[in-house]
Structures are given as structure tokens and as C-alpha cells.
Amino acid sequence: MSVAAADIIIDCVKNKPNALLAFATGNTPLLTYKLLAEKVKEQQIDFSKCFCIGLDEWVGVPPNVKGSCHYDLHEHIFKPLDIKQSQIYLFDGLSADILSECKKMNELVREHGGVDCLLAGIGVNGHIGFNEPGVDPSLEAHDQLLHPTTLASGQNYFKEVTKLEKGLTLGLSQAMNAKKFLIVANGKSKADIIKKTVQGEVTNEVPASYIQMCENGIVIIDKEAASELTK
Known about the structure:
This protein is about 30% helix and about 15% strand. The protein is built from seven helices and nine strands, in the order αβαββαβαββαβαβαβ. It has helices at about 1-15, 30-45, 70-80, 100-110, 150-155, 170-175, 190-200; strands at about 20-25, 50-55, 55-60, 90, 115-120, 140-145, 165-170, 180-185, 215-220. α1 packs across α2.
């Protein structure tokens, strides 16, 4: 799964050196990022012209705190790939003007002609980034009240109990319009939501299900995550 995801990202940059790449955090993509860095160095792929954005960020969490999307993206992707600060734009979770923060991200995505490759995991509730069940699929970047399952799982990324309530996220419309919209999932715990995502009804109650409508949507899973599929 991780090898395939890393190869898709590399192919994207090979075909378009100035690609706009959107990256998620969480446990699922970690091996993808490790392999991506190794492959880029081995194959001497030039990432110096691409631009990178984060899929989401916790509101109210400082960027230097381990567990923030800002911190994790720098540690697992940007530093290993030697991505310069001038090539990066991330949501500011401490911004006093959330609407302005979302507007900046939307303008940046538009200036680049949309996202070329977006890599996302999937929550057990079907969320993509912080697009939670019930989200308006037409939204671009926005702030979002977080689902109880997201709040509970989110605590696992922090050393200490951290106040979490809202998140900033790219919208489903931006994911669906990406040149490559890639979802990765592994493990038995994701089997039920993967079945709903790829074989169930397309509904905002399962935000990831909208990938069924994407010509450029790709879902990569392991056998355990695929264990409840019937087709």
C-alpha cells in the first residue's frame, strides 16, 4: 500500500515538476512518507519546484507541538525531502481570523490550478481531513466542528491531554477536483468504513464515499481493510 502511494506521488512530480501536493497526517501515511523520502533520494527526483500544503490542522494547537499537523508534516515529509519553507503553506491553527485563513488557502489552490495529488487517510467515521459526517460536499477550505470519534482518536497524537474542538481543512470539493485523489487505509478497524466508502451509497454521512464520483480517485488498501468487500 505504502509503496504504491509513494510511487503515485513520485510519478505526479515527474510528470509535473511544479505540482501542488496536499498531504495528510496521522498514522496511516507514515510509511508512505518514509518510503517516499527514500525513493526520492535513490532516484534523484527533483522536488524543488513543487508546492506543498497540509490537508488540515487542529484549531488552537501551536505549530511546534508534537501532534499538530504542522509539526508532523515537517518531521515526516518536509525535512526528509528537503522541502524549503518557500514551498510550503499550512493552515495556521492559531489564527484569530479563521475565515481569512481559509480564504488564503483557497486562493493558493486556485492560483496553482487545483491540487495535483492529494493523499488522505480515512477516519473510522468516513471523514477525509476534517470533513466530518454531514459536511457540505461543495465546500472549499473551512473550519469544522469535530466529530466525537475524531476528538477521541485525536488525543492519541499528543503526549498530554489537549483541548480539541475544531479543525481547519481543505473541502471535499477540492479533494474531488484533485488530479489524483488518493485514499490509503489498512487494518481490520477500517474494513467497515472501506465497505461503506467504495460499495455504499454516496452520502455526506460518509464523506469518503464521494471518491466514487471521482474519475481520478484511487483507494489503496490492504487485505484486512478489504475484508468486508463483496465485489
